[in-house]
Amino acid sequence: MTATHDSQITIRLATDDDAAALRRLAQLDAARLPEGELLVAEAAGEIRAALRISDSAYVSDPFYASRELVGLLDVRAKRMRRERYTRLDRARTRLSLWSGLYRRAGEARPLL
Questions:
Q1: CB 93 within 8 A of CB 54
Q2: What single string gives the DSSP state of each residue in 82-94?
Q3: Which helix (H) or strand (E) holds 104?
């Protein structure tokens, strides 16, 4: 990890008070904000990345070196999933995500 500046990093659960900052982050990333329980990574007092605990979908600040922050969030989310959900629950989540992707792929039109 190459650091261009020193700042304290905080990883915590998102709260209702973070809604405006999370919407801004999603706009910066040009992505939809993941719904559900989120972990956020703060650096220098600003939310720089957010990750959904259930499946690791994330948004991050493209103007900040946030790849490492997303990695830290993912490690924490995996630990939380192991503590909260049984192996069967985690398999069901993956299966529902995969089946949704499979359905969307089947609905896509060929580019001919």
A1: yes
A2: HHHS-HHHHHHHH
A3: helix 87-107
Sign of CA dihedral 81, 65, 49, 27: negative
List, in sequence order, the alpha helices (H) in the chain.
19-29, 67-84, 87-107
Tens digit of each residue's pLDDT (9 = 90 or more) over 3-48: 445 678 999 999 999 999 999 999 999 999 999 999 999 998 899 9
Q: What is the mean pLDDT of residues 69-94?
A: 84
Which pTM value belongs to this model?
A: 0.71
**Token pair recorded at residue 81:** 């999933």
CA-wise closest residue to 50 among 78, 86, 13: 13
pLDDT confidence bin for 97, thresholds 50/70/90: confident
Structure tokens of 56? 């690791």
